[in-house]
From TrEMBL:
Gene3D superfamilies: 1.10.1740.10, Tetratricopeptide repeat domain, Winged helix-like DNA-binding domain superfamily/Winged helix DNA-binding domain. The lineage of its organism: Bacteria, Bacillati, Actinomycetota, Actinomycetes, Pseudonocardiales. InterPro entries: DUF6596 (IPR046531), RNA_pol_sigma70_r2 (IPR007627), RNA_pol_sigma70_r4_t2 (IPR013249), RNA_pol_sigma_r2 (IPR013325), RNA_pol_sigma_r3/r4-like (IPR013324), TPR-like_helical_dom_sf (IPR011990), WH-like_DNA-bd_sf (IPR036388). It comes from Kibdelosporangium banguiense. It comes from the Bacteria. Residues 108-159 form the RNA polymerase sigma factor 70 region 4 type domain. This is RNA polymerase sigma-70 factor (ECF subfamily). Belongs to the sigma-70 factor family. ECF subfamily. Residues 18-78 form the RNA polymerase sigma-70 region domain.
Length: 407
């Protein structure tokens, strides 16, 4: 039974976006696509334990979802032409899975249409393409689950009412549309690299791999776009560290404790090459290019003691001018601690408390600085706050160990 449950979970991670994209292409309706896909997975949960996992789970799910979509169309007495189209789909075998890969790219641009508010674009794409659950998306946006559910519902209704087309935009429209797409892909990648849910794997390679794959597709469409290249480099350099990210005991391993020999040298080389190519253009870098450059500095150091913290801080100074967010300021303070000491850094992050009181990384960073200053009691209290807010099991284990090491 456990093997079947694992197969169902894997199929959901790997096939959700494919099924939704295939149904969106056939029926042009996100509601129908999502509902039918969910029904197909529910049927799999019911039948696979008894019947066994099918040889091609994706094809089985796509066929089942197609039939459920057609049943719904019939129930709702859609127009005759829509009904005929549905009957034709019902009688035909599903397309090979490889043929619908590009449909997911179309689905991204549909969900990221300018007619939608930016929050709706992000949430809808994370749900429809990334396959994240509403609770996972709500945590990513730090909002209530009910509010996130309503946001996604309204976004789908807007797409239907505005007749937003299911296609990749024309070449002249791509630059204006790509920014929100990159934001979505970055959020999908982040959810995979450090999953927010306590009941999921701490690192979800399916999500990081999907984000990288889709970013490569966008780079093929926009080869001269610096931010697309920057995001791809950032993802590659971050993904390269994944093998050293979680210990055998299931604990998150911080950058300063990671086995750098376990990092993926091929991904690092590709990421560094992208960063160098962008620097060679002489064009002022954007946010993702700066973040990629910061990661290039970290992955260039053979040992944490070899890190060029002056360069890291200089890059964060550039980033703050582009993105003066409290989270960027928090990350900058970590570099400040290495150059000017933990007391200076602590003073900097204490000024962020009002904006980051609900963010676990704020308290974890503060706890570490207090520990380095020998203020163990305050450090323990900060660790307790971080542990209470962290949703990732591996991160919670790491924070708990660090707290318990305090005297």
């Amino acid at each position: 039974m456990s093997d079947v449950q694992e197969a169902i979970t894997r199929a959901h991670h790997e096939e959700w976006a494919r099924v939704v994209a295939a149904l969106t292409k056939r029926f042009g309706d996100l509601d129908i696509a999502e509902e039918a896909a969910a029904e197909a997975f529910a049927i799999a949960v019911e039948r696979w334990p008894a019947d066994g996992v099918p040889p091609n789970p994706g094809a089985w799910l796509t066929t089942t979802a197609n039939r459920k979509a057609i049943d719904r169309i019939r129930r709702e007495n859609k127009r005759d032409d829509k009904h005929k189209e549905a009957q034709m789909v019902y009688d035909d075998p599903p397309e090979p899975l490889g043929a619908i890969d590009d449909d997911r790219l179309r689905l991204i641009f549909t969900c990221c249409h300018p007619a939608l508010a930016i929050e709706a674009r992000l949430a809808l794409t994370l749900r429809m393409v990334g396959g994240l659950t509403v609770p996972e998306i709500a945590r990513a946006f730090l909002v209530a689950e009910s509010a996130m559910g309503q946001r996604i519902t309204r976004a789908k209704a807007k797409i239907k009412a505005a007749r937003i087309p299911y296609r990749v935009p024309a070449a002249e429209d791509l630059p204006a549309r790509v920014s929100s797409v990159l934001t979505v892909l970055f959020l999908v990648f982040n959810e995979g690299y450090l999953a927010t849910g306590p009941d999921t794997e701490p690192v979800r390679h399916d999500l990081t791999a999907e984000a990288i794959r889709l970013t490569r597709l966008i780079r093929a469409l926009l080869p001269d776009n610096g931010e697309v290249a920057g995001l791809l480099a950032l993802m590659l350099l971050t993904e390269a560290r994944r093998p050293a990210r979680v210990s055998a005991g299931g604990e998150l391993v911080a950058l300063d404790e990671q086995d750098r020999g376990a990092w993926d040298a091929v991904l690092i080389a590709e990421g560094h090459q992208l960063v160098r190519e962008r620097l060679a253009t002489g064009v002022a870098p954007g946010r993702y290019q700066i973040l990629a450059a910061i990661n290039a500095v970290h992955t260039s150091a053979r040992d944490i003691r070899d890190t060029d913290w002056s360069q890291v801080l200089a890059l964060y100074d550039q980033l703050v001018r582009l993105d003066p967010s409290p989270i960027v300021a928090l990350n900058r303070a970590i570099a400040v601690a290495e150059l000017d000491g933990p007391e200076v850094a602590l003073a900097a992050i204490d000024r962020l408390e009002d904006k980051l009181a609900g963010y676990h990384a704020y308290h974890a960073t503060r706890a570490d600085l207090l520990r380095r200053l020998g203020r163990s009691q305050e450090s323990r209290a900060a660790y307790d706050k971080a542990i209470g807010l962290a949703g990732n099991s591996a991160e919670t284990a790491n924070l708990t160990r660090r707290r318990d090491q305090l005297r």
